[in-house]
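Entry 0007
Protein: Coproporphyrinogen-III oxidase
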Amino acid sequence: MAIDNSQHLVFDHALIRRYDQPGPRYTSYPTAPHFGEDFDEKALQAALNDSNASGRPLSLYFHIPFCEHLCFYCACTKVVTRHHEWGTPYVAHLDQEMALTREHIDGRRPVDQLHFGGGTPTFLRRGDIAFLLDSIGKHFHLLPDDQGEYGIEIDPRALEPGTLRLLRDFGFNRISIGVQDLDAAVQKAVHREQSFALTASIIDEARQLGFRSVSLDLIYGLPLQTPESFAQTLEAVLTLRPDRLSVFNYAHLPDRFPPQKRILDTDIPSPDMKLRILAESIATLQQAGYLYIGMDHFALPDDELAIAQREGSLYRNFQGYSTHAGTDLLAFGMSAIAMVGTTYSQTIKDLDTWGATLDSGHLPVERGLRLSAEDLLRRHIITRLICDFSLDFNALNRQFSLEFHQHFAAILPALKAMSNDGLLQINAHALTVTPQGRLLIRHICMAFDAYLAQKTVHYSRVI
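Output (structure tokens):
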């Protein structure tokens, strides 16, 4: 169902304070904490083999874990080192992983989407990147002429001259840059010092080379931030006119992510101050012409994400919002998560064990999950809510051969309560998230999550 993006996001302080509780980010459903070790290499091989019958296009994700510097806020799976030579055996192992995967995947299936994430993908030296790109082209059928969505995360502080041109010549057409905050005191407090001039120069080079999309990441709630300082950061960032902007909430979970212990609790903005930063940022972005896509993401009206959302074809996977649904996601590198058919699988998180497993001729599967029919139903609902802010019951009933109000009778009271509070509207035919409910979409999705009560997981707050 296409959505009407003419409605602006409405920031309702009272509603947000009431519903701002911990919850999943729903890059998948079921979420990763519910994956099990009973899903092994043979299970992945079977899923890969079965997927060929569908002829679905492929999406490829490569996790490059290395970082030169430790950012104190970071919750990513990473290896902090200045030894750039470690990239050489890593990309050799990626080639092995692709070769083992290709034994089970039809190589004629087109690659609609390609993403390098991390860590810091541009930590790799240019020669290692060239080797990896050649390996990808050897193993998979890549699309010509910018027909695919090929993106990479860039750290301007770790980018060799000529690397952007190498990536563009290969077919990459999107870059994502972590900015987080431009205030010098905040940058020092989180151990990520990156000048505006450096960021601007990389964006300028990318646009000159013909990259068609630039996305920037900001984080609100970092130590020493104030509404005034973050407003200055946002004002400077908007002069760069990025196609997409992500404004993430900093989740301070030092017991779960040890690097965060270096951030002083007393330096973190109060909850009320964080809400003020977010409210003012949303107002500024909407005034500048950006549309709220959902889940922290904003885009210009002519961006492909905004177009896909208007057309009802927006999708979300482990890399975030995407215009390419209906693909099998293959994932390479330590800790990477794949989505093949009706399965999820995650590779081994330890670098040495991951490499040793590949050297022994085995796919390095650590855990995974086979989705049940009920999982698939609830995943569909959560995905459409996150992407469309609406749910057509008649279409859902036809697709899954059910009657919504009967099947979900147990959660109707919760939906009714949210309707009474103004988060959503629900009737016999549809559920529609209101402009003031869109920021709380994670909370609405939680009503459909059958796993929340089964396992104790520490999630960040939804706002």
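Curator remark: DSSP finds 16 helices and 20 strands in the chain. The chain has a mean pLDDT of 94.
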